[in-house]
């Protein structure tokens, strides 16, 4: 048996659509001619589909329409949105009947009028990490808080667009309010961090080694700097 | 079902090969059919520590490439029944290991053996990744100093995210901490991290603490796994670790500075 020499597959192509508002073919011919004259190369041999949605009730001579379009060096391939009767005649004239239920332009216009911008805070549940964040690992909680139930090792990095909570020792880097949020906090049970940063202000280990080193703290941004306070008072 | 145990560390020179040899031998002494595979392609060491370097004909890479069968490459230990070694190739590099090839060899070994101990090379490159990818359990070998601890931490992270068990969403690799070259005197002086310090950072279960010992070096040089030297503190500490690996509860020894008795004080220790 010989091998099959073809393959049949579906595909999508962009076709120009000629949307008719009137069945006056003479006027159409004249106006189209003028239009094509503006960019003859662009239209030469272009496949074209005739949209009949506005002329469904009118009698159209498809053979004439076809030869007229061909005469303007267009290549009519089919019709859409025609009446049952029009579809039959179009088929007889050698045109395909295509499914094209919606006018794309109309649809987008409609959508735009319906869309109104409502400002609303979307609440995303916090990302929770169970276990230690190890050296070399990076966790980013996008648009949400980050909770680590475990330690953050040296060389590990935890980042959140909201708050960072660490139920363990913070030895690596913690970055809160990464996208710019000055109300963000970093909480940890034991501060031994390489770096902490909130909304762009940061402190490295050297500046952290004060009275709060090794204890449970809350870190906030105040006046473009950071402020560390004991988490457990007294 | 055979268990694949990787002995890994990240950092080099912490005692992975010594520990692989001791643990493999220890498991075989307990009656389990055990094979130790040297994954350190290009820097073949395990055969030296095991004292079988003159008996290497075919190696791991030969088996992967189909140039020899497994039985030709496996070296049976002369001292311990049920103990085998699959040596690394000295002339190739780590790219000679393919994931499919390693998996095929491991699956073949699993039919026959109770334990497969993989001696990982240092680093986090291809060879080390290959050694830990198929592991069921990992023995993370760490020295009590900061760089070793940090590298071990990195390895634990990789085991968590890049091992076969992690990728397939199976139960995660069981992690054990093996602290080697532990010197209680130096810990007391603050020159070395203590067991507690290391455990606090790594937060995994402690399998054993091997004291820094002359016995380790002399055992390595004479091609004897140190666990066979049952007189030595290191040998005993490895035996304790094996018992813990098999599920027993054993008290930790050699953690404190030995108090010199009257006898030793007079005659010197």
TrEMBL record, chain B:
CDD domains: MinD. Belongs to the ParA family. MinD subfamily. Keywords: ATP-binding, Cell cycle, Cell division, Nucleotide-binding, Septation. GO terms for cellular component: cytoplasmic side of plasma membrane; cytosol. The gene is minD. ATP binds at residues 11-18. This is Septum site-determining protein MinD. Residues 2-159 form the AAA domain. Pfam families: AAA_31. ATPase required for the correct placement of the division site. Cell division inhibitors MinC and MinD act in concert to form an inhibitor capable of blocking formation of the polar Z ring septums. Rapidly oscillates between the poles of the cell to destabilize FtsZ filaments that have formed before they mature into polar Z rings. GO terms for molecular function: ATP binding; ATP hydrolysis activity. InterPro entries: AAA_dom, MinD, MinD_FleN, P-loop_NTPase, ParA/MinD_ATPase. It comes from the Bacteria. It comes from Pseudoalteromonas gelatinilytica. GO terms for biological process: division septum assembly; negative regulation of cell division. Interacts with MinC and FtsZ.
């Amino acid at each position: 048996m010989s091998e099959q020499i073809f393959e049949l597959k579906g595909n999508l192509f962009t076709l120009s659509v000629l949307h008719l508002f009137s069945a006056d073919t003479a006027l159409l011919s004249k106006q189209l001619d003028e239009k094509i004259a503006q960019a003859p190369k662009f239209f030469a041999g272009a496949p074209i589909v005739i949209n009949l949605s506005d002329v469904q009730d009118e009698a159209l001579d498809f053979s004439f329409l076809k030869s007229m379009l061909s005469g303007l060096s267009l290549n009519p391939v089919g019709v859409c949105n025609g009446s049952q009767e029009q579809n039959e005649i179009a088929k007889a004239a050698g045109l395909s009947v295509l499914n094209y239920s919606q006018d794309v332009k109309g649809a987008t216009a409609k959508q735009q009028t319906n869309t109104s911008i409502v400002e609303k805070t979307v609440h995303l549940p916090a990302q929770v990490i169970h276990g230690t964040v190890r050296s070399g690992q990076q966790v980013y909680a996008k648009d949400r808080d980050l909770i680590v139930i475990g330690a953050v090792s040296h060389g590990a990095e935890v980042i959140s667009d909201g708050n960072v909570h660490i139920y363990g020792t913070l030895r690596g880097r913690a970055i809160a309010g990464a996208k710019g949020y000055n109300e963000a906090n970093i909480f940890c049970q034991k501060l031994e961090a390489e770096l902490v940063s909130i909304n762009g202000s940061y402190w490295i280990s050297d500046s952290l080694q004060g009275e709060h080193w090794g204890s449970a703290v809350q870190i906030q941004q105040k006046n473009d700097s950071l402020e560390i306070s004991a988490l457990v008072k007294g | 079902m055979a268990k694949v145990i990787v002995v890994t560390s990240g950092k080099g020179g912490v005692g992975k090969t010594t520990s692989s040899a001791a643990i493999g031998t220890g498991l075989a002494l307990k009656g389990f059919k055990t094979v130790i595979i040297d994954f350190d392609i290009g820097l073949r060491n395990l055969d030296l520590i095991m004292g079988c370097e003159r008996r290497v004909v075919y190696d791991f890479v030969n088996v992967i490439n189909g140039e020899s069968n497994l039985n030709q490459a496996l070296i049976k230990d002369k001292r311990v029944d049920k103990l085998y070694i699959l040596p690394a190739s000295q002339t190739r590099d780590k790219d000679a290991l393919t994931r499919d090839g390693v998996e095929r060899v491991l699956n073949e070994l699993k039919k026959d053996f109770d334990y497969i101990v993989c001696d990982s090379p240092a680093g986090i490159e291809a060879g080390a990744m290959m050694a830990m990818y198929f592991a069921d359990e990992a023995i993370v070998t760490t020295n009590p100093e900061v760089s070793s601890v940090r590298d071990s931490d990195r390895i634990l992270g990789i085991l968590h995210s890049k091992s076969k068990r992690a990728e397939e969403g199976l139960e995660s690799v069981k992690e054990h901490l093996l602290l080697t070259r532990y010197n209680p005197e130096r810990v007391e002086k603050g020159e070395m991290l203590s067991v507690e310090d290391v455990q606090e950072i790594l937060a995994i279960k402690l399998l054993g603490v091997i004291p820094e010992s002359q016995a380790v070096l002399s055992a390595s040089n004479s091609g004897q796994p140190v666990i066979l030297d049952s007189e030595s503190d290191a040998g005993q500490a490895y035996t304790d670790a094996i018992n813990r690996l098999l599920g027993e509860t054993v008290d930790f020894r050699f953690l404190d500075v030995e108090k010199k008795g009257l006898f030793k004080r007079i005659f010197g220790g």
